[in-house]
Each structure stands twice: as C-alpha cells, then as structure tokens.
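Lay summary. Proteins are chains of building blocks that fold into shapes, and those shapes determine what they do. In this project we predict the shape from the chain. Here is one chain we studied, written as its sequence of building blocks.
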Amino acid sequence: MKKYKIVVAYDGTDYCGWQKQKCVPSITQRLEDTFSVVFEKSISLVGVSRTDAGVHALGQVASFRTDFDVEQEKLFQAWNNMLPPDIVIRKLEAISQDWNIHQNVKQKIYFYHFFTKRPLPFVQRYGWYYRYPINIEKLKKALNVFVGTHDFRSFCSSDDERENTVRTVDSISLQYFTRFNAYRIAVKGPRFLRHMIRRIVGAAIEVASREQLTVNYLKEVLKEKDPEQTLPNAPAKGLLLYKVIYEGDRKK
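And here is the predicted shape, written in a compact code that computers can read:
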C-alpha cells in the first residue's frame, strides 16, 4: 500500500465544493471517479481544506492510499489526462504512511478578488463585481481589524457549532491589478472557520462603501461574537485557495 500527496487546481464554478455530497458533483467525487475509470481501483481522498461550492483553488492539497503498483509519473499523467478541463493535478508525490495532511500546516493563503468596474468576460467568474463606490483607504483599515488572534464567532457560518472559534490571521493585504481592473485581498493564517474569509471580506467592503458605517462599528461586531450579525457574506466566486504551506517546506 502506497500513500500519495497531490496538489490540485480547479475552477469551482460548476461544483458543490470539495467535499462529496449526494446527487451533486464535487471536486473529490470527480477526482475519485476518474481514478477509478483509468486504473480500475478505488481511492478515498482527504483534502486539507473543504472549499465551498463555487470556491476555486490553485493549491489544494489532498492525500490518498492505493495498492495499485504503477510508476509515479505514469500515475500522474494518466490520471491528469482523463480529468475534465476545470480540474488539474499540478503535483503528485509519494509520502510516508504516517504523514498527516492536517498536521504541521504552517499557513494557508487565500486570495479574494473583486472588481469595481464591470469585469472582462474571461475573468468575471473569478471575482465579485461590486457596483457601489468603495473607499479603498477605509477598506484597508477595515481589513486590518481582523489581523491577529480573535474570537471570530461573528464571522463564521451560523451553523458552525464548534466550541472554539478563536483563530489567528497572520496578515491581510490589498493589491490592485491594472491588467484585469481587479483588487486582490490576500489573507494568511494557519486555520480558518467555515465562511470566515468571505464574511470578513463582505463585512469590510460593506463598511468601506457606506459612510454611516465606521471601522469602530466593525470592531464592535467582532467583539459581540454573534454569527447572526447582518453584514453581508461575499460571494464564493471571488475566493481562491492559493497555497498551503507546511512546516519544513522549502521556500520557493
């Protein structure tokens, strides 16, 4: 029995998310079904991040075991060649049996893209077109509210019942790309709650686009620890899992 790690990129538009669900296509299901068709063997994938419906990835990491004995490069090429064009395995490597995909995660990097002008057709499915004026300097201050260690209960899914909602955000930055008329919010941290990044982004942009809402108001919402708060949740289409960094990874 061998164990492998893969790095996967995908366009999540037409999928219900990473995790398998009944009667709807998921990224995991498509990868497992394709492996079964190509090699006539079943596998069970475990992913490091359960991206939601419509969320994209450039660096999702997953692992699986198989007793199928084939050269690693042939496994990589044959599997990849049969996948649909919206899913690509970027890397496949053999790992030790005791390697755990959830342990020793140093940092996850997510990008959120949004547009303040109507986007070009070939990029519109990867970002949120926000039609109202945004005060960019106010947005930077609003995003900075979330940097550090906080209880993010006000900024996770309302059906998330876990007891510990304290998380650390290492950094949040904002960058503009002239070529695509797009803004990128980069969020870095070791772990995130369900919907946490999308709720942070939605709330910060709402505050930055409404004069009557202040950055101090955002701080109060964070302190209240109320997942039923009414600041908007940014659409899934703008979110991208860019990279997962493990302890001991070489810098590139």
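What the prediction tells us: The chain has a mean pLDDT of 95.
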